[in-house]
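Hi Y.,

Following your request, here is the sequence exactly as I used it, all 129 residues.
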Amino acid sequence: MKKKSGFTVLEIIIVAVFASLLFIIFFIQKANVDAMERDDDRKTAINAMYYALEESFYKTHGYYPETISEENITVIDPALWTDPFGVNLGYEDSSYSYEAANCEDGKCKEYILKAELEKEDAYVKRNRN
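Below is the corresponding structure, written out as C-alpha cells. Let me know if you'd prefer a different format.
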C-alpha cells in the first residue's frame, strides 16, 4: 500500500476558516483605529479653534464673533476648518459646529463649539469668559 502525502479537504477548510476570521478581525480593528484617529483630528481642530477664539479673538476684541471662519480667525492652520470628510465648518454635513449666543450687533458673549465624534460622545467646548 502506497502512502499518500498532502492535506485533506477538512484540513484545508479549517485553515481557510481560521484565515478568514483573522482577516475579518483585522479589518474591523483597522476600521476602529481609523475612526479613533479621525476623532483625534476633530478634537485637535476644535481645541485649535477654541484657543484661537479665547487667546486671540476675545483678548483683542472683548467679545466673540457671531460666526467663525478662516477670514475672522486667522491664527490657526486653514486646514483645521475642514473635518476629516472634507466638509468645512458652517456647512450642513460638517461634523463641526459653532453656535454663538447672547449676541448684539454681531458681538456675542457666549458660544458652543462642537465636534460630532464617531467613537465617543460629542466633543464640546464652551466660552470661558
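The radius of gyration is 25 Å.

Thanks again,
Q.
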